[in-house]
Amino acid sequence: MKLRSTPPAMPRLLLLASAVLLCTFCCLCEGRFVVEKNSLKVTAPDALKGTYECAIGNFGVPQYGGTMVGVVAYPKANRKACKSFDGFDISYKAKPGSFPTFLLVDRGDCFFTKKAWNAQNAGVAAILVADDKDEPLITMDTPEESGREDYLENITIASALITKSFGDRLRNAVEKGDMVNVNLDWRESLPHPDERVEYEFWTNSNDECGPKCDSQIDFVKSFKGPAQILEKKGYTQFTPHYITWYCPESFTSSKQCKSQCINHGRYCAPDPEQDFSKGYDGKDVVVQNLRQVCVYQVAKDSEKPWLWWDYVTDFAIRCPMKENKYTKECADGVIKSLGLDHKAIDKCIGDPDADKENPVLKAEQDAQIGKGARGDVTILPTLVINNRQYRGKLDKGAVLKALCAGFKETTEPAVCLSEDIQTNECLENNGGCWHDKAANISACKDTFRGRVCECPVVKGVKFVGDGYTRCEASGSGRCEIDNGGCWKETRNGLTHSACTDGGCKCPDGFKGDGVHKCEDVDECKEKTACQCKECKCKNTWGSYECGCGSGLLYMKEHDTCISKNAAGQVGWNFLWVIFFGLAAAGIAGYAVYKYRIRSYMDSEIRAIMAQYMPLDNQGDISSHSHHIEM
């Protein structure tokens, strides 16, 4: 990669061939271009009521994820808005309490961006450009020439292109004196399926292509911080991409293809200065684009994909074309400073002179082709969010809003809920949601798209209800949060609560709904306790006290009074009964013991004696036998 010296003159034939080649590049990039749209709803007059499609302009700040309400105006002069409205003494600046103005202008005679700039300076909130021919909607883009005005970066209003037929109807209604109320809606312009946003940035390492290249690197520098935070915390998945073209086979041996392409015409980029006689070649841009893709892949393999932002930013600062530092040596210095493996990156780049496909650049070319709802990528720079091409100003705030619109509602990161990005609707009247002022608990949850009324979870306790008029704590631990919304009162250091795991129920000794009140039950008056003849009842808060006259003792389990003396005598008698009972049991036991011992001894003695002398019932038999033997 090296600079060429400028020759004294370039033959006209070479210039013509170069123009043909550049035109070929442009033709090759044509494909399925998808026009990104938002909806426009007319609420008045009745004859125009309905929802219409309009194309989002590729400048200004579309309100992705939100809506905008206004009144349509059509100027009496300067109807194409190609001149400043100051010269026509026309102003649309909003007055206190009035609706914002959506200015309807005609297409033609000047750039779309010029119309938007003049309309913005007149005080409008959005511009509607009516097409001047019957055709499908197209995308209003920024002018391509290098001499663009600085105002492009300062356009902040939303813009939309509408069809000729719809524009005619709006124009007729306004001229007739009707008040045309319109709601511009971008809520579904970007998909928002889950808690992670996937986005791509199609860019270019070329820094000599004028204002567009300047805006690309300015965006990378300003958006690097938020992008890296979102990536590190897993909220987003970012992928950079680079557009390349191939050189037609009939031109591969030409000087133009050789200077602008690598791998024998397979991957090409236009000359940075649009002048083949000086500066860097298109192939230098292709190689640096390839290097930046490989930096991302190596960083991703090391689980640090966010280092791509550091590399691109540092390379733009340290290795600009204008200072003749757009070289491999300078790039390697940046890679080394970031601690990346430059050998792995060189291996990923491969051999630019080889007559074979480069798998990395081949994948980039394949990715240019649109899939699903996303069209082919033909505009640089292009931001793709959740497989939908972003339209609007390439600005840190505008892009961050668009990314926030890609999250499923209630899953947005905290950065999407900051005051710089959106308005907290829960701050005013609690968003119309349920609110417990005593416990300072609210069902209002602020989101990027507005707010939702959803019963919260507080300290592990889940509240259940509709979120608008009712939320009640449920499950174990519910009494820890504002006593579960149940009645609770303390008197003289004694506290009673109606909160239970099953709901609100007045405790024993109280009656009521358990939520708003629990009243003490007067057991004495209602004669539910302490009702014996001698009993003396005294009601207390939540209970009662029952006593008896002198010499009497109250037995609560029997609700009766007995004499203290009688109670004492009964007690001694009871003890004596127990004593005598135990004594009798002891004597009986001893008698049984003696009897069993005596019987056992008798049986043993008889057994011993039987061994030495015949028993009475055996004597006769033995003597008789003896006499016979004699």
Question: What is the element layout, followed by pairings?
Answer:
Blueprint: H1 12-28, E1 37-44, E2 50-56, E3 67-73, E4 101-106, H2 112-121, E5 126-130, E6 158-162, H3 164-175, E7 181-185, E8 197-203, H4 211-232, E9 236-242, H5 255-260, E10 261-262, E11 267-268, H6 282-301, H7 307-318, H8 328-337, H9 342-349, H10 359-368, E12 382-385, E13 388-389, H11 396-405, E14 435-436, E15 441-442, E16 444-447, E17 450-453, E18 457-458, E19 461-464, E20 472-474, E21 488-491, E22 494-497, E23 499-500, E24 503-504, E25 510-512, E26 518-520, E27 535-540, E28 543-548, E29 552-555, E30 560-563, H12 564-610, H13 616-629
In what order do the strands lie side by side in the largest sheet? 1-2-6-5-4-3-7
The low-confidence runs, each spanning 5 or more residues with pLDDT under 50, are 1-30, 615-630
How many β-strand runs?
30
Question: How would you describe the shape?
Answer: elongated
Mean of all residue-level pLDDT scores: 84
The termini sit apart by 152 Å
If helices are DSSP runs of H or I spanning 4 or more residues, what is the number of helices?
A: 13
Strand content: 15-25%
Q: What is the helix fraction of residues, given as a range? A: 25-40%
If you compute it from the alpha carbons, what radius of gyration comes out, rounded to the nearest whole angstrom?
47 Å
Main sheet overview: 7 strands, mixed, barrel
Q: What structural class should be given to the helix and strand makeup?
A: alpha+beta
